[in-house]
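User: Predict the complex with pyridoxal-5'-phosphate.
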Amino acid sequence: MSFLADRLSRIKPSPTIAVTSKARALKAAGRDVIGLGAGEPDFDTPENIRAAGIRAIEGGQTRYTDVDGTPELKKAICAKFLRENGLTYTPDQVTVGVGGKQVLYNALMATLNAGDEVIIPAPYWVSYPDMVLLAEGTPVSVACPAENGFKLQPADLEAAITPKTKWLILNSPSNPTGAAYTADELKALGAVLLRHAHVYIMTDDMYEHLVYDDFKFTTIAQVVPELYDRTLTVNGVSKSYSMTGWRIGYAAGPKALIKAMGVIQSQSTSNPTSISQAAAVEALNGPQDFIKERAAVFQKRRDLVVSMLNQATGLHCPNPEGAFYVYPSCAGTIGKTAPTGKVIETDEDFASELLEAEGVAVVHGAAFGLSPFFRISYATSTDVLEEACTRIQRFCGSLK
Ligand SMILES: Cc1ncc(COP(=O)(O)O)c(C=O)c1O
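Assistant: Here is the predicted structure with pyridoxal-5'-phosphate placed in the model:
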């Protein structure tokens, strides 16, 4: 009999964290490795936000706070939703957790009974299915192929809904594809959801500010107000404000749900770090100009990566609307032989042979539920991206 709980056998460690660790280990062993696996901006947290954190320490904001967020931070979050999304929330509709990840986890833990279904459009962020499984729910993955821009189609949503469906998880812009839904696309999904009053919507808007080519970000509770009462709008400071290490995420939604999420949090972590909360207040209330400037840098990198990957034999790279990922197809490399003599049969083979041959670490598409693809994070400098894409081109050219 194992000492470890059965629930561990249901889930796997995050494959994206695994790739990052593997790249780090190879580097430490002296290999020349470029890691394109990590999902975090390479920019530093802006100076005014860092200073607010320091002020919080010096000013003695170092004690427990309210479990699900300080009044100041909840106020700043309400102001953000109104200002940027036209959504009106009161502080008792807002919860703050240790990153967007904890907020999503709390919501699932607070609502799922064994066998409850959660619809997850694939490709998906790696944590959604495993968090559902940890909460004893059943992930229902719905394929969103490249021909559909990796976006959920209303008819496919309709077909996936059963009496057991509790949530639909939407993520726009998406990790791993960068695809983002237009207001019209959200309305079309909303029309389906309006016919199924028992389905709640968890929208993960973490990459809201990283959209390109004048794409206009919208969120479902905003464009389909009839769904406001059953939507949990999740966001955070990690990606938009380059604050991944500070661990602050938040959500707004129905009061009863928000309260239940706070109960879960009260028996796990209690409040998120007091200092990080003070810094997040400054992030949300302070100057916002740098967000656009940084997004412009990301757009240039996206253009570079998409163009260079489309010149690699056997790859095809769609041009995504947002986030800092691309999700190219490696279908044209399947069946070919790598320099080691191994035949590439899957996207996992592609990723591991690429790492072996050229020292470029990417995450294979199977980890995100749609093959044969791989994910590149372009949240790194232009020089490094150029070198990485050159190596990928060389690797693809070497396949026989
Ligand atoms: C789609 C998506 N949601 C949520 C998160 C979690 O964000 P946080 O670092 O705030 O927990 C991530 C981070 O990679 C993400 O990509």
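DSSP finds 14 helices and twelve strands in the chain.
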